[in-house]
Prior knowledge:
Elements: E1 7-12, H1 16-27, E2 32-38, H2 42-49, E3 56-58, H3 61-65, E4 72-75, H4 82-91, E5 96-99, H5 106-119, E6 124-127, H6 134-145, E7 151-159, H7 169-188, E8 192-198, E9 214-220, E10 225-231, E11 239-246, E12 249-253, E13 261-263, E14 266-268, H8 275-278, H9 280-295, H10 304-323, E15 326-328
Parallel strand pairs: 1-2, 1-4, 2-3, 4-5, 5-6, 7-10
Antiparallel strand pairs: 7-11, 8-9, 8-15, 9-10, 11-12, 13-14
Amino acid sequence: MTERAPLGIAVIGTGRMGADHVRRIHDVTSGARVAAVVDVDAERAKAVAARVDGCTAHTDPAAAMAVPGVDAVLIASPGPAHEATLLAAFEHDLPVLCEKPLTPDAASALRVLDAELRLGHRRVQVGFMRRYDPEYAQLKALLATGRLGRPLMVHNRHRNAASPPFFTSSMLISDSVAHEADATRWLLGHEITAVTVLRPTPSASAPDALQDPQFVVFETGGGALSDVEIFVNCGFGYQVQAEVVCERGTARIGDGHALVTNTAGRWGGTIAQDFTERFETAYDRQIQAWVDATRRGEVTGPSTWDGYAAAAVCEAGVRALENGGRVEIELAEKPALYA
């Protein structure tokens, strides 16, 4: 790959997220091209590949990684398949953007971390795209100035109009609250040390046996608390909001007040209906930042350690949901590579 050549990317998984990334790389991202796609559904892979000139279709990630012109890998397959794909990418020493979760549990995340350590350099960026959202970035920058004093509490709200039919109660933690786990760690700069999950009476809109909503409380090593209202069948739209309460003030994002109308005796705006709408800019910025860093020979953004820490938090959260009470989190010692 020459300095000016576009980065050839193999996209693993061509479901909703993967297909959207193929579109994004092809139509929005500069300095990159989709060189190969992979899916267990061969026909779906072929259909996605047919939209991009020079793109090949595969059912085996390793085969796609061996294609001439593949310089990097974007993993958008289901979480249980991530570990094997990441280890295959390490064998080729290819840079990777891995959608969250890094892996579904802390033990497998540690195996990936150990494999990356054996390489001796970072290869993975984890897809916690909220770090690239303009509002979250503005909030992070404000906290870094210290003008509001020490953060004391973070209030998070995470609402979906309706959950997918396959969603389980534990997935509210592992697939949704995972984002708040990373956002809390990133905004505050501290690890999460314990988690408690409270279970209000389920909404009448929740499918049978689904504990929805849930109320999650994170304790951090810096003494701050972070709570998360997760409600995936609210019925009215997709909302992600955060408010940080500090010693000398508060800061809030996610209200969606870019446009407010006053008409016919009412005032208001619109509410996004899914995550691809709310975080479109964040996804665009995330992919562009990854491509730019990779072309420079660098790895930036959320690391394998961040993926492992989030997996450990979610694992503890699921235990707290299922068994009740407060669950403490014990992380492995953080390697210098991720300092």
